[in-house]
Amino acid sequence: MLRTLVIGSRNTHKVAEIRQILAGLPFHVVSVSEYPDVPDVVEDGATFRDNALKKARETAAAVGQLTLADDSGLEVDALDGRPGVYSARYAGEPSTDSKNNAKLLTELTGVAAEQRTARFRCVMALVDPDGDETTVEGICHGCIGHELKGEHGFGYDPLFVVDGYDSTMAQLGPTVKNRISHRARALQELKNVLNKMAQSS
Ligand code: IMP
Question: Cα dist. 140→52, 86, 124, 187 in Å?
């Protein structure tokens, strides 16, 4: 029987991407949304790693299963790395992607194209309820455009022009995104760990 792997996120976009990137691995992948009694984890860590580990540890303890959690965000050089760990609620709560993108464009008003460099960063934490923990990181470099372009993805994708492409992440679509994104790069590293776990279980 396949071992269960719980994705410790209720963000449907993230869950869909993680499922697609991990397709083919010998795990029964489910979202924490399928465990309605598990409370939301408060993301109050100072770093992506702190938050990813907190989400994975608390969820693994609550569901008693191997759990994978993602904490990710956008770092913009001209804003000294902001919004960073505050990417989800950059423009305040209740948060929406459109308010966050509007705030980003406002903060970058007058900043020239060559100074709009940025990166998406993702830290993934894999926590086994028996205590084993692994963290990995993935980065995707790019720059912030001057207007929203593209319909795919979520978050800052319509403003993020990916290095090596003349397109935003939202224009590239899921097949390309799930090959080159910060999330894909982090998960690429975890695949070896997950394959070993599957073999030994
Ligand atoms: P988290 O749930 O605290 O990890 O928040 C992640 C936030 O970072 C999201 O709400 C988005 O605003 C942003 N973000 C993370 N990954 C992506 C991505 O792949 N595309 C666009 N925005 C992202």
Answer: 18, 18, 14, 13
